[in-house]
Fold this sequence. Notes:
Blueprint: E1 3-7, E2 21-25, E3 28-33, H1 41-49, E4 54-58, H2 62-78, H3 84-104, H4 109-128, H5 132-137, H6 146-164, H7 169-181, H8 191-194, H9 206-213, H10 218-223, H11 231-238, H12 257-275, H13 279-289, H14 296-308
Antiparallel strand pairs: 1-4, 2-3
Helix pairs in contact: 2-3, 2-4, 3-4, 3-6, 4-6, 4-7, 6-7, 6-12, 7-11, 7-12, 12-13
Amino acid sequence: MAYTPLRISTVKPERELTFDLYIFFKETYLKYQDSGTSIDTDKYSKLKAQKIAKFYITEEDEPNYQKFLDKLLSETMEDPNVSVDEKVTMVDGACSTAIEKMQEQPESEMAYKMTNTAAKSLRQIVEKNPEALKKIFGKKVDDADLVIKHSLNVSALSTKLASKLNLKSDDIDNIAVAGLIHDVGMTRLNKDDQMLFKKDKSKFTPDDKRIYGLHVKDAMTVLKDKPWVNQGVIDLAMNHEETLKGDGPNKKSKLSMSEMIISLVNTYDKTIVTGGVTPKEAMKNMMIDQVGSYELDLINKFKEVLISEGLLE
């Protein structure tokens, strides 16, 4: 039997489950909660205190979980009594679960739909809650979740920048989804090559550059012919390393505004997540090093967004 991981934050206590829940203990999947029951609040609190980050469900239960999560996300986002912290935690869990599923099965229709739903909720919370971005960026993660954390950051910040620039709603939706899946291909590289994610690109050897460039194509090649996938999302994910200098893996130098946004935010956030620099240092470096890579006006608008969101303090 195959099992799918999901973040514990996407399952609320005192809410009837429509799927069986499992935990992974001593190399074995153990049923933790039956479908039709609910986890009581004390039990849920103990799990979080024990730092249990994930539950598991069977692949057969994935459609039931997706319906459950869709409803829960919708109710949580619309409820004025739910704190921004709770909303961010819920959306973070939904996005992380979707990205992890995409990493494991990029060809899965269910994984893509999960990502699409999570991206819409992320866009909603970022646009409606001024403090949401700061909370998203303030979360610390282990090295094992760096790619997921970076993907969530890129999606959230690119969405915010696109909204500030008044891009069309459909374009913003595409940016939100592409931000979540843009680095899915990293997990398709072998273990040694995956370490390139953390290496300073200015120190890449020609071979490093060639291998690293593969991550923009591998997963997208699997997705491009699927009828449920938006081609605009594929194009953005494929071109997230491209710049106006034409020095990206695809050697593309004419970029749409959406492509420039996601590439700019990708470069900025990757410097922080993997380089250990502060947001202020990362922005200062961009103003010096990336002027020819992106339109100067876009870099300035991006800086304005970071300041307005309290991310350059």
